[in-house]
Amino acid sequence: MDATFTAEQDEIRRTLRELLLKRCSPDEVKSATRTAAGYDTALWTALSEQLGLSGFAIAEAYGGVGCSVAELALACEESGRALAPSPLLATAVLAAPLLMALGAERQRAELLPRIASGALTATLAVPGAGLATALGLTGDNRGDWAGGGRAGGVQARRADGGWRLYGQAEQVLDGHSAGLLLVAAHTGGFARSRTLLFLAREGTAGLGRTRQTSLDETRPQARVELRDVEVELLGEAGGESGAEGAEGEADVAAALTAVGETAAAVIAAEAVGAADRVLERTVEYVRQREQFGRPVGSFQAVKHRLADMYVQVQAARSAAYYAAWAAAAVGGQGGEERAVGSLALAQALEALRSTASEAVQLHGGIGFTWEHDAHLYFKRASSDELLFGPVHRLRAHAAERSGLFEEAGI
Predict the structure, then answer these.
(1) Known Pfam families for this protein (predicted)?
(2) pTM passes above 0.90
């Protein structure tokens, strides 16, 4: 592994940081989250059109930039530093790779250029609160998490030569504003039980979307209700399904797991960026705040706590960078590197949670007020662990996938 960044990667980091410093102050972030979209649409347009951020993970043949996971992780690290509310994670990290992997050529040609230009946002909708399971981060995604033939979840059925969905999905990232939903649904009953992915477009009859009150306002979530919604099977070309049947189910599960490994590395980098920024702000504060006639940061106990925070952040950064490199190296295939993303994500989420908690305490009385900016980072840490963790399950599933328990005879 070559840990040295190229000049192009350094330029991506520098340019994005400069733009976000100008456009994403804490007050601007709070204002953007309270808009109808949940993010600054003008900033998203600038990120898409000027920097091509929305098309980072999309091949050049479809109007994208064709970058690797490493570049996407660097971009999200800078986004995490500013806690910039945007549909980047849902669109570029979750939805676009699934369209690339499973979509028919007709679907890719129609949708990917619009996503790459920033004109279309997309997201992945899974039943209940099963996003981490669907992505293979905390459990096997070949089970019945999409419904399993029972009441609940999202059910798909054939009707009039097409497909229709019925059910509900909770905690859908940017689900209230995305123009395209990739919905995971169960079909086939008990005899041919399988999970498939479907395309639900904005404005379709029977599609209801409600923005939910979430712990982290910078990570908008929605409840998506599907009441006999007409949809299109992802991978279907000319009426013939390329993803139906037992083989199709394996393809969907494998694609979701591959996207989950990439997403884990990217979210880990994003968490590292947030942890690094909150550490910087805490160091700045303790240098200025005085107690007993001297800066708070001059006390040995405070220095020790800051040193521990620094070590955690740097260790998490190393793990996140390695996970991004590993995800790019395996190219979505199986192998020994497949559990790296989950472990890096666990370390990064733990570092962010610990750093944000320490920041609240080291800021003293002002840090405990909800209005203080330190709570934006604390909420991001807690929300991400609820969405993609918890940490102990990430580590346990990674150990299971790598065969660690079998080797130890457990």
Answers:
(1) Acyl-CoA_dh_1, Acyl-CoA_dh_N
(2) yes
